[in-house]
């Protein structure tokens, strides 16, 4: 008699926590990017930085359209691959349909750069730079598509920490170093565009070496075209593409809209101010993104074995993200004026936008953890509902609000309304169609205790912001760290804290009973 294959090990909260640790480190490149922004503004001016922000926003939007959803597709198909050949087929499909169209589009944009340049509002002194900047910077498009797909391929293999060196050292820190050197060499704003291309080129080269460790390049060449895995990857990408594009619209379209609404240098400055607000709020968004990256492949593996495992990690992730995101957002929103002081006096105009985005990102973090679960366990047709509703709410709210207040705050408020709607609908869909929801008997206690910590810490940060920025800023950062520790320590159940393993023990997050459980 032939033996039955051993069942795959269960996917538990420990797997989620382990993946989160390395993924948060990988995404700390976003924090490095936030630190770099004041330096870019100081070197190139707010209007010059605004032009860079608008072009990079455009690159991001175009990449999310023409990569055909291939980054998200691999989160669904690679974890369910039965062999290295199938995984290689998924990667080859993603590279072909994700990078290929971006190369074609980049060539077209470079060719028609002179026709596109008049649509951008920039400072008079930067006008001669626009056409060459477009012709040069557009080649970031295929480079960025390659980096996004390559790092997604690592996460699909559940290698969550492989991006750390790429995202922090080679992409962000190297970009800042290049920009400083080119600025010192007298290249001006053009040096920032060159620095971005150089950092992406180095990152793409290193991605190839990483891919060779986790995928068989021999299978990439040998795998038959048109296999079931290749077809599934292609159609999974197309099904997720609209929601990916709309999610990116919420991040980058407001900068483009503000640049189009406000003429001249004001349009570039407004785009720069929104980008500053978005970068600051990305500290909270980082929490959600880390969970999204980890949960998508883990949920796909768990779904293959047992739906109950999906329910367990869904509830655990929602409790943990609530305990972290709520106090973090409360402290940073209350102390936002001190944070904006890093960018100069002009940046304080964006305080309303910053507060709105911090609060919206916190709500999105708690609600939006359902989206990666929906993407891997539900039918393809369910992917579009939240995206369409979110963008309609954003457009409707923005149209009603803009005109009754300044453009920056109005556009941001409309975007925030759409974000919250887009995050909440997948949670409802999972509850109604898949009978999955994260609100078990432990969630209410976590929400109440975490909310109390957030309220007290936010009030303390509001008082601290009255100090000079040099004293207020480190105090606000310490308050944010203390609030997260208190929330995790006293809001989460024992088992959740125990899942944090050695990190939880080193941070003294576990009570006396947990050492026995360990």
TrEMBL record:
The chain crosses the membrane at residues 39-62, 94-117, 129-147, 168-187, 193-212, 256-277, 283-301, 313-334, 340-363, 384-405, 411-431, 443-464, 470-492. Pfam families: Polysacc_synt. Keywords: Cell membrane, Membrane, Transmembrane, Transmembrane helix. It is a multi-pass membrane protein. It comes from the Bacteria. The keyword Mitochondrion does not apply. It is found in: Cell membrane. One of its GO terms (cellular component) is plasma membrane. The keyword Membrane applies. InterPro entries: Poly_Biosynth_Transport, Polysacc_synth. This is Membrane protein involved in the export of O-antigen and teichoic acid. It comes from Sphingopyxis indica. The lineage of its organism: Bacteria, Pseudomonadati, Pseudomonadota, Alphaproteobacteria, Sphingomonadales.
């Amino acid at each position: 008699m032939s033996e039955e294959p051993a069942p795959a090990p269960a996917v538990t909260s420990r797997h989620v926590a382990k993946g989160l640790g390395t993924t948060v480190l990988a995404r700390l490149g976003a924090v490095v990017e936030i630190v770099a922004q004041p330096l870019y503004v100081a070197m190139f001016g707010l209007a010059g930085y605004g032009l860079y922000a608008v072009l990079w926003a455009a690159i991001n939007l175009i990449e999310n359209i023409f990569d055909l959803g291939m980054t998200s597709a691999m989160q669904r198909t690679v974890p369910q691959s039965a062999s290295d050949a199938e995984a290689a087929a998924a990667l080859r499909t993603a590279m072909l349909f994700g990078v290929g169209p971006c190369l074609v589009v980049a060539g077209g944009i470079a060719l028609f750069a002179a026709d596109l340049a008049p649509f951008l509002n920039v400072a008079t002194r930067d006008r001669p730079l626009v056409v060459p900047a477009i012709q040069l910077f557009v080649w970031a498009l295929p480079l960025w598509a390659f980096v996004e797909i390559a790092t997604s391929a690592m996460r699909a293999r559940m290698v969550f920490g492989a991006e750390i060196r790429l995202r922090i050292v080679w992409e962000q820190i190297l970009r800042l170093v290049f920009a400083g050197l080119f600025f010192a060499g007298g290249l001006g704003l053009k040096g920032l565009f060159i620095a971005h291309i150089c950092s992406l080129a180095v990152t793409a080269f290193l991605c190839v070496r990483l891919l060779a460790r986790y995928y068989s390049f021999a299978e990439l060449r040998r795998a038959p075209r048109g296999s079931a895995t290749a077809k599934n990857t292609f159609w999974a990408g197309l099904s997720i593409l609209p929601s990916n594009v709309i999610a990116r619209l919420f991040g980058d379209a407001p900068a483009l809209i503000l640049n189009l609404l406000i003429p001249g240098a004001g349009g570039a400055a407004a785009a720069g101010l929104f980008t500053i607000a978005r970068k600051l709020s990305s500290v909270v968004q980082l929490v959600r993104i880390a969970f999204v990256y980890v949960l998508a492949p883990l949920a796909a593996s768990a779904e293959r074995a047992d739906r109950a495992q999906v329910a367990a990690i869904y509830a655990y992730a929602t409790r943990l993200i609530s305990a972290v995101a709520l106090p973090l957002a409360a402290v940073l929103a209350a102390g936002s004026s001190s944070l904006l002081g890093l960018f100069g006096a002009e940046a304080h105009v964006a305080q309303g936008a910053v507060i709105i985005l911090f609060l919206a990102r916190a709500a999105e973090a708690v609600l939006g953890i359902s989206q990666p679960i929906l993407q891997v366990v539900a039918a393809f047709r369910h992917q579009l509902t939240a995206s369409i509703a979110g963008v309609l709410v954003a457009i409707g709210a923005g149209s009603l609000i803009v005109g009754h207040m300044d453009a920056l705050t109005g556009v941001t408020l409309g975007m925030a309304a759409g974000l919250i709607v887009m995050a909440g609908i997948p949670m409802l869909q999972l509850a109604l169609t898949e009978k999955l929801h994260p609100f078990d008997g432990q969630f209410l206690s976590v929400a109440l205790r975490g909310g109390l910590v957030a309220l007290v810490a936010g009030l303390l940060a509001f008082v601290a912001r009255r100090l000079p920025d040099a004293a207020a800023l480190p105090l606000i950062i310490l308050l944010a760290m203390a609030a997260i520790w208190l929330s995790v320590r006293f809001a989460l159940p024992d088992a959740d804290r125990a899942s944090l393993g050695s990190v939880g023990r080193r941070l003294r997050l576990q009570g006396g009973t947990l050492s026995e459980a360990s």
